[in-house]
Amino acid sequence: MHPHLYYELSSESLPVLSAADIASPKPPYIHFRRQYPEYILYYILDGEMYLSEDTTDYILKKNDFILLDPSRTHYGTRQMPACRFLYVHFRGNLTERTEPSAAKTFDTTSIAHACDCVPLPQDYKLPAVIVPKYGHVELQENIIFISQLKENLLDTFHGQIRYNRLQAACLFYEMLLTLAKDYCYQQEANVVSVRGKARLIIPELIRFLNQCYAQDISGELIQQHFNYHFDYLNRQFKKWTGQTIFQYLNMTRIARARQLLLTGYYTIEEVAAQTGFCDVYYFSKIFKKHTGMTPGKYSLLHQEP
Fold this sequence. Notes:
Blueprint: E1 5-9, E2 16-23, E3 39-47, E4 49-53, E5 56-60, E6 64-68, E7 74-76, E8 83-91, E9 94-98, H1 99-103, E10 129-132, E11 134-136, H2 140-157, H3 164-191, H4 198-212, H5 219-226, H6 230-241, H7 245-263, H8 268-274, H9 280-291, H10 295-301
Antiparallel strand pairs: 1-9, 1-10, 2-8, 3-6, 3-8, 4-5, 4-7, 6-11
């Protein structure tokens, strides 16, 4: 059984890449033995890789990944058939954590509170990113996104234009973020009582609400879009987030409305229209329910004296 190890990646600095490419060793191939002075990410594109780090064996398959540590020795355990994988060598501000420490990062209510908005406290700091040492990317949209990032990362890293290495570091950080987000999804899916196809549908529904909140969204529209009865979706959604679909939608809309009001660029009527409320009076009612004050008072409260 693999030990539950994670890396805490600082959000205040970017990794520094020294090598990045796709490898496809001619089979039969056994990975050579080494202790490399930098971290290495392997992401399997096709085939299988048989690898050990110190005394822990790993079998890596398509869409699996592993972060190899510079303090440990890694080597192949047996001949592997055709295997195609992305490798990235990098330095970075990483701290190894065990499961109890890392588990504090995963909050099953985080989705319901993901729309916390400005103004942020002056001492606010972005949280560290928790990436598992070894894992599998489950969500199809993340697999597709990582594939796109891979192409952009390699094109940028091997280019000779000024700031390319910096841009490649940003793209690689985004890849690590995607691995972390996919793992968070898996953790949340494992602790909520949602099973079957709903495990994949509810995250899609959450993304739909986050992206399309400005539209006229009804239960019938959701039912048609996802091809499931609305009442079923609503029950599964509440199991996952602790909120009904329309409670979450209103929370998302009000969070966005707060952001728009703080800019000072729009009237209350315009903000209501941009956040999916066709009735400004209903918008004011829901806004006050969520914030404790009317949109007008909220705007005045955050204006310069």
